[in-house]
C-alpha cells in the first residue's frame, strides 16, 4: 500500500531519477520468506500528528498554510458572497517558490569522546571546500544559511560560507543530530534508548515544521536557502516533505557533504530535485561516516 502511495505522490513533483530511490525507501510489505507473518506496524508518537493522511491521499494542507484553511471560519460563513471569499483566499496564497538545500556535514572524527572534539578530518575539510565550490557554481542568490549548532556542522558551515560571501549564517539547536522516529523495518546495528526517540523526535519534528513549508504570503521572489545539518535530520525531513511514511527514513543514505534539493511550490506541492548528490566530488573524496 505504501508503494502505491509513493507512486501517486510522485505525480505532485518528484523529480525523475530520484523516484526509484525513494520508492524503494517506502515500499513496505510482507516478508519474502513466504510465511504468514504480518508486516510490523509502528505507531507514530503523539507529537508527530497525522504525518500522512492515508494511502493514496496527498494532504494539501500539510504545512498548515493552505489558503482556505487560513480564512476565518466565521467570516467565511457571514453571507458576504463567493466573490468576497475568493478575494480573501487570494490574500493567503503564496506567490514565491522556496528552494531548500539540505547539506550533510563533512567527515569528522567519530572516535572523540566529547561532541566539541568531533572536528572535521582533513578529508572532511576538503569535502566542505568542494561542496562550497559546487554551491557557488550554481550562480544562485542564496538568502541565508541555517546550520546545526554541533561542532561538525559549524565547521562545515565556516568552510562553505567562505565561498558564499555576504550570505548570513544562523545557528540553531533544532537541527542537531538525533533519533527522529523508530525506523521500520528495524535495524540491528543502531538501537538508541526509547527516550531518545521521544526527546529527539519532538525536536526534529519541530525543525521540520519551523523550516519546511511554502513561502510566506509576503514573499515576492523565489528564495534559495541552505540548511547544514545531519543525515538523520535530512532523511526524516525528506520523508515528511514528500509525505512518505517517516518510519522509512533510515532506508535513505547520504554521503558526507552531500546536497539534497527540495522545492516547495506556492501551491504547497513539494518536489525532490536531488537526494544526497556528491557527483561534484572525485570518487576518492567521497565518504559516508
Automatic annotation (TrEMBL):
Predominant place of localization: mitochondrion
Under which EC number(s) is this enzyme classified? 3.1.3.16
This enzyme catalyses: O-phospho-L-seryl-[protein] + H2O = L-seryl-[protein] + phosphate; O-phospho-L-threonyl-[protein] + H2O = L-threonyl-[protein] + phosphate
Query: What's in the keyword line of the UniProt record?
Result: Hydrolase, Membrane, Mitochondrion, Mitochondrion outer membrane, Necrosis, Signal
What GO terms in the biological process aspect are recorded for it? Answer: positive regulation of mitochondrial fission; programmed cell death
Q: Which family does it belong to?
A: Belongs to the phosphoglycerate mutase family. BPG-dependent PGAM subfamily.
Q: What is this protein called?
A: Serine/threonine-protein phosphatase PGAM5, mitochondrial
Q: Can you name the source organism?
A: Myotis myotis
Amino acid at each position: 500500500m505504501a508503494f502505491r502511495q509513493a507512486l501517486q505522490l510522485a505525480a505532485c513533483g518528484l523529480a525523475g531519477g530520484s523516484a526509484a530511490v525513494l520508492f524503494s525507501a517506502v515500499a513496505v510489505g510482507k516478508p519474502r520468506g513466504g510465511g504468514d507473518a504480518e508486516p510490523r506496524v509502528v505507531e507514530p508518537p503523539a507529537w508527530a500528528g497525522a504525518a500522512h493522511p492515508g494511502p493514496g491521499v496527498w494532504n494539501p494542507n500539510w504545512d498548515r498554510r493552505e489558503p482556505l484553511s487560513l480564512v476565518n471560519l466565521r467570516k467565511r460563513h457571514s453571507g458576504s458572497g463567493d466573490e468576497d471569499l475568493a478575494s480573501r483566499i487570494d490574500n493567503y496564497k503564496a506567490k514565491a517558490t522556496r528552494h531548500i538545500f539540505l547539506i550533510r556535514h563533512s567527515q569528522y572524527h567519530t572516535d572523540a569522546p566529547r561532541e566539541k572534539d568531533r572536528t572535521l578530518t582533513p578529508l572532511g575539510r576538503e569535502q566542505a571546500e568542494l561542496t562550497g565550490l559546487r554551491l557557488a557554481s550554481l550562480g544562485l542568490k542564496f538568502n541565508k544559511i541555517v546550520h546545526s549548532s554541533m561542532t561538525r556542522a559549524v565547521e562545515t558551515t565556516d568552510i562553505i560560507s567562505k565561498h558564499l560571501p555576504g550570505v548570513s549564517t544562523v545557528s540553531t539547536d533544532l537541527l542537531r543530530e538525533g533519533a527522529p522516529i523508530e525506523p521500520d523495518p528495524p535495524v540491528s546495528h543502531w538501537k538508541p534508548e526509547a527516550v531518545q526517540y521521544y526527546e529527539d523526535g519532538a525536536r526534529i519534528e519541530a525543525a521540520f515544521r519551523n523550516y519546511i513549508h511554502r513561502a510566506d504570503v509576503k514573499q515576492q521572489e523565489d528564495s534559495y536557502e541552505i540548511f547544514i545539518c545531519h543525515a538523520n535530520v535530512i532523511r526524516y525531513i525528506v520523508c515528511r516533505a514528500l509525505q512518505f511514511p517517516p518510519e522509512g527514513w533510515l532506508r535513505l543514505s547520504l554521503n558526507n557533504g552531500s546536497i539534497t534539493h527540495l522545492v516547495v511550490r506556492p501551491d504547497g506541492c513539494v518536489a525532490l530535485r536531488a537526494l544526497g548528490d556528491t557527483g561534484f566530488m572525485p570518487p576518492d573524496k567521497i565518504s559516508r561516516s
